[in-house]
Specification:
The chain is 50% helix and 14% strand. The protein has 11 helices and 8 strands.
């Protein structure tokens, strides 16, 4: 097992730190300010990490725009060398973000859990097994990142640096915007007379079933609803009833749904006309 240092005690850093610790790795955690962290993790704070010489792997669990500045500060310490592997957790940045450490000789790369790591932290840790982790960088960095990923139940998948923006945008659609869609649907149900609690109770199993269907048969077969049926009259009623901002979103999503729906040309054209009205 490895000794792993993590800079950044945010949600991702703590969740991954806990998972790595439970997998048998020695984990060191560092942040700018002292704060409580869940056992068995301990936190050093202020300045630069005092344990850099003691770890084999350094994970930068910081916001994307902080990766290069943090790498620059760590490079200035002069402790990182050829025996180290330095990985950032960004889903959108390549190993060029670690350029200040290039002269150190360390293996440079990335490890990005393709999973939401929202609170509570215990739930975030439990979501890691079975998820994918995007890995990239030098061959040595990819090997180390892959080993760490497997140790916590993640499946490593290599992602080329030039494709990381699309890779990350896909995660935004699948996770962040799914939450937005629930929020929009919840507001509509409340406007329709439901309580917020009842709206969430109604939507959660519906959305879970849709995701289960996608997992089983793929998005084309899983698509249901008025666009999949070519139900022009229902689409028109929806657009007439929706608030303007929701109608804009409905139209754009319906157009995207048309690319999945297997409609006869004349029926597709009728749906397109309904969406333009």
């Amino acid at each position: 097992m490895s000794s792993v240092g993590i800079v950044g005690p945010g949600r991702a850093g703590i969740a991954l730190g806990l998972a790595l610790s439970r997998a048998g790795h020695s984990v060191f955690l560092h942040g700018r300010q002292a704060r409580e962290v869940p056992a068995p993790l301990t936190l050093t704070s202020g300045g630069e990490p005092p344990w850099l010489a003691e770890v084999e792997v350094l994970l930068l669990a910081v916001p994307d725009d902080a990766v290069t500045p943090v790498a620059r500060r760590i490079a200035a310490v002069g402790t990182i060398g050829k025996r180290h592997t330095v990985l950032h957790l960004s889903g959108v940045l390549g190993d060029e973000a670690l350029a200040p450490l290039a002269a150190s000789g360390a293996a440079l790369g990335s490890l990005h859990p393709y999973q939401t790591l929202a609170h509570p932290v215990e739930a975030a840790v439990e979501r890691l097994p079975g998820a994918v982790a995007g890995v990239g960088g030098s061959d040595e960095a990819v090997a180390v990142a892959s080993e760490l990923a497997r140790s916590v139940g993640l499946t490593p998948v290599s992602v080329a640096a030039e494709q990381k923006v699309l890779y990350h945008a896909a995660a935004v659609f699948a996770s962040n915007y799914l939450v937005v869609l629930e929020g929009v649907a919840e507001r509509l149900l409340v406007e329709a007379g439901m309580s917020t609690a009842d709206a969430r109770k109604a939507l959660a199993p519906l959305m879970a079933a849709a995701l289960d269907n996608v997992r089983s048969v793929g998005p084309e077969e899983a698509l249901t609803g008025p666009v999949a049926r070519g139900d022009v009259e229902t689409i028109g009623r929806h657009l007439a009833a929706l608030p303007p901002e929701a109608a804009v979103l409905y139209r754009e999503l319906a157009r995207a749904a048309l690319d999945l729906a297997e409609l006869a040309p004349e029926r597709r054209a009728a749906v397109e006309r309904a969406l333009e009205s």
